[in-house]
């Protein structure tokens, strides 16, 4: 029985293959499975090629998986357009539409011989049983339920639920199509038994959501009551979620006329004392940078979410990349510091978003949350977040005594000074982009400017000692190291486990806090490290270069990087890791053979 | 630009008239303080000290009037307010210039005194209460005295060219 | 002062809104008068300073919030309106004022004006129009007349100016007025009326730059030219006539209210409150925010 099943499916938009994937992962979650689903599309709004990748697992998962266990091609041209995003290997069962006329030994996949190749007359079955060949996605679901024994009961229930609006006839047709798939599976068993094992924690409750919704929900939890933004893929769902939900909590959403206005309104709301946020992606982020500088000098809490996509410019709006790290850390005019946080999964997007608000409030600073397209838009089935674990921080407000003679930017030991807000009697002050003295009055004094820069930097110092903003795993004494961030970190965590099973001992550091760079944490991690990789999806290897800027990186640490769009697979990292072992003195790849 | 708002001169009581007079002096004093500061900030010290001198004068007049009011009416509530007058004896904002000469500053002050004089002259015919009439006539005449004071100061200045900002640095961009 | 006059039976005096910070505008700048009129208007309105948020962009004129006792926010060039709107939505009970220059409002920030208008958000936007970039030393501004020679148009500009009045009227603004620093009492009255107007109020103020402005724009010249709309018998309810009069921007100096919508649409901030009230009736517990994501 399998603990893990990675299914990749492609077709044209009209085939409803993505909708089938959604139904599948939802049903699996209902039955207690963990899972991840990613989608990928051509550039057409409707009817272009579309694909999805569904990973179902009996235990927690951190990435969408590697080479496919099952490949479903409703038509070959569309399937092939996804290339490396849907990798077929020697263990893959390939299922394709029989109508294509391609014989099983002539499928257009070169370089590998799949474990099994099955042509299925999806369209024909759908037409015969469901009355329309449009129902072929439902036949696919029946087939998958039959062969892999996942969530059969729930699947059929959910298919019916989804179509209920369309009337009982459509529901009945869908049920027949589904059952046709199940029956076909029974009549044509696979050579190897590929049934899923039951979930390890039984039918435990799962939540199913994507990173953008998670981020929005976490923002509400963290007390965010204002959102200002402008639609941009792949971040828009954050605004969409909040525009449905935030009102219930007494908040508001403003769809502004552009990104500048969006973040501007958020800065205004924060000035008015309300926790606020904006969310965007690359091009929008560029427009927001000036306001981030303003929030920095006016010391106003602000959370800016960047759901990264391929860039520069319009780049690849629906594909992930991790190439906005430099921008996040350094798109400041002046010495304007800003903490940068990055989640690695949908599940930990909750904690990181709450953390972003807490840091923003605690230190009265803009905070950038660097998500990416994959985390933002992939669906993840995970155990419900225990919200009781998270505290919510509020900005330091002046006491009545402090309001007697209020000094907005008073120098303090921590660098944090109490902040008032309009409506507070006695707290009146001038917030400004211009450099100011402690009272907030404009100044042109270089000495004062220096002191204020000290203040703005000093208050962030405690952050680099926050060990909880770093995840370390693996063999602490290993001379081989991996560092990775964002969605790629989830790939590396799995790669580390695979490598361990193959006898490669290594350790992994995942920074959730990317900036300011916690030099100490890295120095400690690098003790005894001789070789390793900094793994990320950017052409320049931005994290690697950032570390080289602040940290004494051992010479054996290399950058493993390339442009985004197709995420790394765990196998890619394991391969490089093995190569890196060559860099270890006295050891060669041969001395460390796989033991699996 | 001298303006009043909501003052019914025909029915002005002596108390109100005195209060108004005080407010006029206060307004002028404040404006001269502002001008003094403007001149100090813009490296125009002669005009600054002249405007400071004017401010002290206005304060002196104000104090005298306030004392009279207290004597006659104690702390009876006031029913006229600053919003009713605008620039009666206060020099107009556009009279100030960076690097203005002492002569220009004095000329600006003279214009204000002339303006104030005109205000009282214009108000007088409408006034019915003889005590108020007397007060306004007195104030009007005082303006003449003020004008003389300023003219005397003017006479003390050597006749000079107004150089303005001819030798000053260029303004600074921000 | 021991012999101070007894206080009037009224809550606020203009000086209550005057901060300790001293303006650093050039002596003679029109902005001094605008500030003075604003103090007056605020005293008449009678809201305490701590309930006022005053937002500006960047420019000489944009320094104005610092000279008041209100909560001020001197933001970045051209973005006062978005920030002001965020404040108003976050706390609709505040009196929100917004001010800046002609460059701030109609060049870099021009795109924001239309949207503040169509939201009819309840704030007052005062543009201190001097037809020039003051702070950066006399460059061409979007309201500079065609042909104007400045340091960036040394041979004369090749463009027509934006007409701020028509621009805002064209977007359907419900309150559009013009004042001048040459008539401070009139300006104070207009600002007061703008603040009282329930919705977005736009006030263009001719506030000359003594340092870079042309001679014929100065206070004295304005005083000779200005004509009140009231004296022309204009009815501020007449939108079309308002537009007709507004066309004279740059030629005539009309002061007063061009247009006051007798039946303005509800303000954005009011609608936000209503929606919060309606949707917030269930008042869910934020700790349970993820419940809706549970896969059943
Ligand atoms: C993004 C940006 N671009 C340019 C500037 C420089 N700048 C500051 S104020 C200003 C124009 C000032 O003109 P206006 O808005 O009319 O205000 P005024 O000084 O005339 O009152 C410019 C171009 C800036 N601060 N920020
Ligand atoms: S440069 Fe012009 S606008 Fe700026 S303060 Fe001086 S006079 Fe006023
Ligand atoms: Mg200007």
Q: Could you explain how this protein is built, in words?
A:
The complex is a heterotrimer of chains A (596), B (174) and C (296). Chain A is an alpha/beta fold and 596 residues long. Chain A is built from 19 helices and 21 strands. The two termini of chain A are 18 Å apart. Chain B is elongated, with a radius of gyration of 18 Å. Chain B has 174 residues and is mostly helical. Chain B has a two-stranded antiparallel ribbon with strand order 1-2. Chain B starts with a strand and ends in an 18-residue tail after the last helix. Chain B has a single domain (11-77, 96-156), classed as Ferritin (Up-down Bundle). The model of chain B has no long low-confidence stretch (mean pLDDT 91). Chain C is an alpha/beta fold. Chain C is built from 9 helices and 10 strands. In chain C, the strands form 2 sheets. Chain C has an 8-stranded mixed beta sheet with strand order 2-1-3-4-8-7-10-9, sandwiched between helices. In chain C, strands 5-6 form a two-stranded antiparallel ribbon. In chain C, β9, α8 (239-246) and β10 (254-260) form a beta-alpha-beta unit. In chain C, α1 crosses α6 (184-196) and α5 packs antiparallel against α8 (239-246). The radius of gyration of chain C is 21 Å and the shape is globular. Chains in contact: A-C, B-C. β15 (430-432) of chain A pairs parallel with β2 of chain C, so a sheet runs across the interface. The complex binds thiamine diphosphate, iron/sulfur cluster and magnesium ion. Magnesium ion is lined by residues 59, 101-103, 130, 132-134, 141 of chain C.
Short synopsis of the structure:
The complex is a heterotrimer of chains A (596), B (174) and C (296). Chain A has helices at residues 17-30, 76-81, 122-130, 136-148, 152-163, 168-187, 211-222, 236-245, 259-271, 282-297, 325-330, 346-363, 373-377, 400-404, 446-458, 486-501, 519-525, 542-550, 570-581; strands at residues 4-12, 34-41, 49-57, 70-73, 93-97, 116-120, 207-210, 226-229, 252-255, 276-280, 302-308, 340-341, 366-372, 379-382, 430-432, 470-474, 480-484, 507-511, 513-515, 531-536, 557-561.
The helix-and-strand class of chain C reads alpha/beta
State the CATH class of chain C.
Alpha Beta
Number of individual domains of chain A: 4
Q: CATH class of the largest domain in chain A, please?
A: Alpha Beta
Q: What would CATH call the architecture of chain C?
A: 3-Layer(aba) Sandwich
- Give the helix/strand class of chain A: alpha/beta
Number of strands of chain A: 21
Strand line-up in the sheet with most strands of chain C: 2-1-3-4-8-7-10-9
Structure ligands: thiamine diphosphate, iron/sulfur cluster, magnesium ion
**Estimated helix fraction of chain C:** 25-40%
Number of helices of chain A: 19
């Amino acid at each position: 029985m399998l603990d893990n099943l990675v299914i990749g499916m492609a077709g044209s938009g009209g085939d409803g293959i993505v909708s089938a994937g959604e139904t599948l992962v939802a049903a699996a979650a209902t039955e207690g499975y963990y899972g991840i689903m990613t989608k990928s599309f051509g550039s057409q709004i409707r009817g272009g090629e579309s694909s999805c990748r569904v990973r179902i697992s009996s235990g927690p998962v951190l990435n969408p998986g590697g080479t496919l266990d099952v490949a479903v091609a409703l038509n070959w041209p569309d399937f092939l357009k996804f290339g490396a995003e849907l990798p077929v290997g020697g263990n893959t069962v390939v299922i394709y539409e029989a109508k294509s006329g391609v014989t099983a030994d002539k499928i257009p996949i070169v370089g590998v011989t799949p474990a099994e190749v099955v042509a299925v007359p999806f369209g024909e079955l759908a037409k015969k049983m469901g009355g329309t060949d449009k129902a072929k996605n439902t036949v696919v679901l029946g087939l998958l339920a039959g062969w892999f024994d996942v969530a059969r009961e729930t699947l059929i229930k959910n298919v019916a639920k989804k179509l209920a609006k369309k009337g009982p006839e459509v529901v009945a047709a869908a049920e027949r199509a589904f059952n046709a798939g199940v029956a076909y599976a029974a009549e044509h068993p696979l050579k190897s038994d590929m049934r899923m094992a039951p979930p390890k924690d039984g039918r435990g409750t799962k939540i199913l959501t994507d990173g953008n919704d998670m981020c929005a929900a976490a923002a509400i939890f963290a007390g965010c009551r204002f959102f200002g933004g402008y639609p941009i893929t792949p971040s828009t769902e954050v605004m969409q979620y909040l525009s449905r939900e935030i009102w219930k909590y007494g908040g508001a959403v403003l769809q502004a006329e552009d990104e500048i206005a969006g973040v501007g309104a958020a800065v205004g709301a924060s000035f008015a004392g309300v926790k606020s946020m904006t969310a965007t992606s690359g091009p929008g982020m560029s427009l927001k940078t000036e306001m981030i500088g303003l929030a920095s000098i006016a010391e106003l809490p602000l959370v800016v979410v960047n759901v990264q996509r391929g860039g520069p410019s319009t780049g690849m709006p629906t594909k992930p990349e991790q190439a906005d790290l430099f921008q996040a850390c350094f798109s400041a005019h002046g010495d304007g510091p800003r903490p940068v946080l990055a989640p690695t999964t949908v599940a930990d997007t909750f904690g990181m978003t709450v953390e972003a608000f807490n840091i923003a409030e605690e230190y009265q600073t803009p905070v950038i949350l660097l998500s990416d397209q994959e985390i933002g838009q992939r669906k993840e089935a995970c155990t419900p977040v225990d919200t009781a674990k998270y505290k919510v921080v509020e900005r330091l407000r002046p006491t009545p005594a402090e309001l007697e003679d209020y000094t907005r930017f008073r120098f303090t030991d921590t660098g944090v000074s109490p902040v008032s807000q309009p409506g507070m009697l006695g707290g009146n002050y001038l917030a400004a982009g211009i450099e100011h003295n402690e009272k907030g009055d404009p100044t042109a004094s270089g000495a004062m400017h220096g002191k204020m820069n000290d203040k703005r930097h000093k208050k962030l110092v405690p952050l680099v000692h926050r060990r909880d903003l770093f995840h370390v795993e693996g063999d602490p004494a290993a001379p081989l190291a991996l560092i990775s961030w964002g969605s790629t970190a989830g790939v590396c965590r799995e790669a580390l486990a695979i490598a361990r099973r193959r006898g490669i001992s290594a350790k992994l550091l995942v920074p959730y806090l990317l900036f300011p760079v916690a030099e100490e944490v890295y120095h400690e991690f690098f003790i005894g490290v001789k070789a390793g990789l900094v793994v990320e999806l950017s052409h320049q290897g931005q994290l690697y270069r950032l570390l080289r800027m602040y940290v004494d990186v051992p010479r054996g640490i290399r950058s493993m990087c390339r442009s985004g769009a197709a995420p790394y697979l765990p196998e890619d990292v394991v391969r490089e890791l093995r190569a890196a072992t060559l860099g270890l003195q006295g050891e060669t790849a041969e001395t460390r053979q796989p033991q699996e | 630009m001298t303006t009043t708002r909501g003052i019914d001169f025909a029915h002005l009581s002596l108390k109100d008239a005195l209060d108004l007079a005080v407010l006029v002096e206060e307004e002028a004093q404040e404006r001269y303080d502002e001008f003094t500061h403007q001149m100090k900030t813009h490296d125009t010290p002669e005009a600054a000290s002249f405007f400071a001198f004017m401010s002290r004068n206005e304060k002196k007049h104000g104090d005298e009037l306030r004392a009279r009011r207290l004597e006659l009416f104690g702390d009876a509530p006031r029913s006229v307010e600053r919003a009713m007058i605008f620039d009666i004896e206060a020099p107009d904002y556009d009279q100030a210039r960076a690097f203005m000469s002492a002569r220009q500053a004095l000329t600006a002050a003279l214009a204000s005194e002339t303006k104030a004089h005109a205000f009282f002259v214009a108000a007088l015919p409408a006034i019915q209460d003889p005590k108020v009439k007397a007060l306004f006539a007195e104030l009007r005449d005082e303006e003449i005295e003020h004008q003389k004071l300023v003219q005397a100061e003017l006479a003390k200045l050597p006749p000079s060219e107004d150089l303005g900002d001819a030798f000053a640095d260029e303004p600074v961009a921000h | 002062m021991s012999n101070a006059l007894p206080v009037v039976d009224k809550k606020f005096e203009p000086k209550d809104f005057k901060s300790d910070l001293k303006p650093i505008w050039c002596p003679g700048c029109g902005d001094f008068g605008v500030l003075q009129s604003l103090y007056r208007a605020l005293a008449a309105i009678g809201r305490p300073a701590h309930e006022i948020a005053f937002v500006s962009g960047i420019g000489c004129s944009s320094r104005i919030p610092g000279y008041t006792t209100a909560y001020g926010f001197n933001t970045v060039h051209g973005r006062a309106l978005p920030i002001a709107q965020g404040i108003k939505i976050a706390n609709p009970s505040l009196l929100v004022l917004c001010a800046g220059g002609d460059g701030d409002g109609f060049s870099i920030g021009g795109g924001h004006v239309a949207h503040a208008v169509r939201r009819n958000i309840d704030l007052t936007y005062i543009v201190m129009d001097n037809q020039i970039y003051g702070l950066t030393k006399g460059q061409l501004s979007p309201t500079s007349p065609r042909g104007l020679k400045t340091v960036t148009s040394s041979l004369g500009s090749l463009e027509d100016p934006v007409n701020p009045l028509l621009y805002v009227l064209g977007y359907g603004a419900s309150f559009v007025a013009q004042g001048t620093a040459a008539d401070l009492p009139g300006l104070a009255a207009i600002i007061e009326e703008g603040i009282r107007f329930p919705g977005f109020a736009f006030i263009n103020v001719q506030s000359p730059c003594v340092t870079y402005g042309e001679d014929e724009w100065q206070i004295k010249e304005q005083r000779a030219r200005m004509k009140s709309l009231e004296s022309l018998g204009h009815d501020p309810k007449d939108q079309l006539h308002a537009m007709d009069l507004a066309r004279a921007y740059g030629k005539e100096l009309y002061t007063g209210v061009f247009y006051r919508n007798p039946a303005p649409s509800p303000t954005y901030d009011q609608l936000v409150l209503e929606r919060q009230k309606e949707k917030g009736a269930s008042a869910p517990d934020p700790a349970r925010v993820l419940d809706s994501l549970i896969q059943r």
